[in-house]
Amino acid sequence: MLELFKEIKDDLLAVEIELREVLQAQYPILTETSMHLLNAGGKRLRPALVLYGAKFYQFNLEKVIPLAVSLELIHMASLVHDDVVDASMTRRGTPTVKAVWGNSISTHIGTFLFAKSLVLIAKYEDTPLVSKVLSDASVKMCEGEIQQISSSFDVHQNLKDYLYRISRKTALLIAASAQLGAAACGAPRGIHLPLRRYGHNLGMAFQITDDILDIVADQSQLGKPVGSDLRQGIITLPVIYALSRCGPRGRLAELVGKVEKSEEEVQEALQIVRDCGAVNYSFEIARKYITKAKRELNCLPRIPTRSTLGMAADFVGIRKF
Amino acid sequence: MLELFKEIKDDLLAVEIELREVLQAQYPILTETSMHLLNAGGKRLRPALVLYGAKFYQFNLEKVIPLAVSLELIHMASLVHDDVVDASMTRRGTPTVKAVWGNSISTHIGTFLFAKSLVLIAKYEDTPLVSKVLSDASVKMCEGEIQQISSSFDVHQNLKDYLYRISRKTALLIAASAQLGAAACGAPRGIHLPLRRYGHNLGMAFQITDDILDIVADQSQLGKPVGSDLRQGIITLPVIYALSRCGPRGRLAELVGKVEKSEEEVQEALQIVRDCGAVNYSFEIARKYITKAKRELNCLPRIPTRSTLGMAADFVGIRKF
After folding, report:
1. What sign does the CA torsion over B55, B58, B61, B66 have?
2. Which of residues 55-94 of B touch A (CB under 8 A)?
3. B56 in Cβ contact with B199 (< 8 Å)
4. In this predicted structure, what is the pLDDT of residue B132?
């Protein structure tokens, strides 16, 4: 992904420095956990979209840095809280905060990161849209997470349930990132709304490919074990497709619905999913969102960033990590 | 406490209705957990302070209701996250969300409540102080919680550590409640700053008496088992005083520092704390904060609410639940 961010390399560096600055805390354990999270890496997709979005209207780096930082903080907070939930012990190849510090600290660290983002958002007094969009997105992200937990191991979910869930869990914050960078620079609706829709579709495609990678990826590239969604009972698009092919009483449904699976059972389920064309089907759906994302770009001014965002969309469809 | 809120009974009812309205969610588990929390009760101290504060300057109920609701939501969020942490199974005599739904749901429910509060706070575009004060308070509340966890079972804490911790964990949000009701109605600094300081001192006294009650209260009145702080390793003012009397190598330090205590050991530690004058000493400190709180009231206009706030401060010093 980094190659795609070349155009904003220096700006992203400024965001990174500010992230580290913001997370300096009085209490050592806070700085320690925060630095652990920052050093674990991440694509910084949301800050990049803030910066790219801002390029479409009177770009002002100083104006968008706090916003870019706050979006990454909200994302980090959701990852930390996610780790409390799913008990996964690695993310991006590094031990999670939960694995190192436990549930209690993780819960508060997540909220700390989230609260820190609010301090930054409070600076956008002159763009009330920022706090409106981000508070709404935060509520819906939680709803998506809760839906995910309460529907885990439920083999009766359908495509609509899945799309609703990932739009909340993932696409909303990516949409907000693409929209608010421009909005914070004063862009009119005619600019920030297409950017928002671009972000939404990109986010949907992003999550779908993420879910495909959990079925087919090379573990060393992914940085976490393949099949972790299945183990946790998270039923993703390829699995929903495969279930619809194999029927709710078939072997796959039996395996997927089982709360405690052996490693052999996980591998068997993955194999059934791979063998029934679910991966191609899911890529097809992802590609539709990518097409939609690129179509939104046509509403935007023809600046070089427009092509970059088009390439970013294409990249999401072929990424391997 | 309710007797003290008679003056604002109808307004508090309006807050309660709005709380229920706001927490209606699309997803049943969210409504269910939220209603569970609301029905568990609570003193609604923060909404009451918002309303009372607003009485000092062009009181406007419609203007302060979202604020009152958002302060209760932040408080509820912190309780839910607290329960993830301390594994306590009852609060106010009712099973906690954590006890019923587990850690994973609790983490997201807490964040959901917090995020809901942001949606309400976003309405105060014309009073940027609201989001500034509340985002700052939220960060510091997390810091307080994290400090509490990482200093648990540590018998070397002193009075200063304790006061710093409770000012963040408790007093800040109470201070914000007292301040922001007036500020949202347009009150000048000369009014909302004394209210803030009143709230801070009231909050300190409130937490200290809470900590005393955990040593001496009647369990049926308190709604949770006595000694729960000691069990969790939270070292409160009476214990700090008792430790300073008994020395860091005494029997009390041995008991307090022990992570797994038998019920007999908890009772023995409580007895040592009660026997050395720690309770009277702690009441004395609480009383100092109450005096300070009441002194701040002298800076405010002489309206009937001023006497009510004075009585509220006195009440905190003698409460039994």
Report:
1. negative
2. 77, 81, 84-86
3. no
4. 95
Q: Residues B83-97: pLDDT tens digits?
A: 775 444 344 445 565
- Sequence-ordered strand ranges (E) for A70-199: 90-91, 94-95
The number of beta carbons lying within 10 Å of the beta carbon of residue B98 is 25
Both tokens assigned to B82? 């607290």
Give residue for tokens 């308190």. Answer: B222
Provide the whole-model pTM: 0.90
Q: Which residue has the tokens 């401060």?
A: B313
Tell me how far apart the alpha carbons of residues A187 and A192 are, in angstroms, rounded to a whole number.
Answer: 6
CA atoms within 13 A on the CB side of A94: 13
CA A46 from centre of chain: 8
Chain B residue with Cα closest to A85: B104
A285, pLDDT greater than 90: yes
Nearest chain B CA: its distance from A165 CA (Å): 11
Report the domain count for chain A.
1
C-alpha A204/C-alpha A56 separation (Å) is 23
Task: Give this complex's ipTM.
Answer: 0.87
Question: Domain with A141 in it: what CATH number?
Answer: 1.10.600.10
Query: CB-CB: which of A27, A118, A146 is closest to B143?
Result: A27
- CA distance linking residue A142 with residue A13, whole number of Å: 30
To test the contact with chain A by mutation, choose from B118, B160, B173 the residue with the greatest count of A C-beta atoms within 10 A, namely: B118
| Residue of A79, A110, A77 whose CA lies nearest to A92 | A79
Structure tokens at B95: 């099973």
